[in-house]
UniProtKB/TrEMBL annotation:
Pfam families: Ras. Residues 92-109 have a biased composition (Basic and acidic residues). GO terms for molecular function: GTP binding; GTPase activity. InterPro entries: P-loop_NTPase, Small_GTPase. It comes from Reticulomyxa filosa. The keyword Nucleotide-binding applies. It comes from the Eukaryota. SUPFAM superfamilies: P-loop containing nucleoside triphosphate hydrolases. Gene3D superfamilies: P-loop containing nucleotide triphosphate hydrolases (3.40.50.300). Keywords: GTP-binding, Nucleotide-binding. Residues 81-109 are annotated as: Disordered. This is Uncharacterized protein. Belongs to the small GTPase superfamily. Rab family.
Length: 109
């Protein structure tokens, strides 16, 4: 069993060297050795995620949560940006939010 601390990226990055060191010590071939990888401290990781930023487990290959992550960051950025008209808008520009009165004509054809 190879165990890493999911709150510490360096421990995850060390898995290969730990596996190689173990195989070297016991003189085993890594191709057929039954390894299992465990990510420990999942309870702490959830707590840390809540405190800092939104967290998504993603897979670009399987298209899991990638789009949702981009939507979340876009919404967050838009909330922080004040709404203001573009600098190039003319002063007499049409206000699309303002309802304009439509005059009905009695003329036929």
């Amino acid at each position: 069993m190879l165990v890493y601390d999911i709150t510490d990226a360096k421990s995850f990055e060390s898995l290969d060297s730990w596996r190689d060191e173990f195989l070297n010590q016991v003189g085993a071939d890594g191709k057929d050795f039954p390894f299992v990888v465990l990510g420990n401290k999942s309870d702490l990781a959830k707590t840390q995620r809540k405190k800092r930023h939104p967290f998504y487990e993603t897979s670009a290959k399987d298209k899991i949560n990638v789009e949702q992550a981009f939507i979340t960051v876009a919404k967050s950025a838009l909330k922080k940006e004040p709404v203001r008209p573009p600098p190039y808008a003319p002063k007499d520009a049409l206000d699309l939010k303002k309802k304009q009165e439509v005059k009905k004509s009695n003329d036929c054809c």
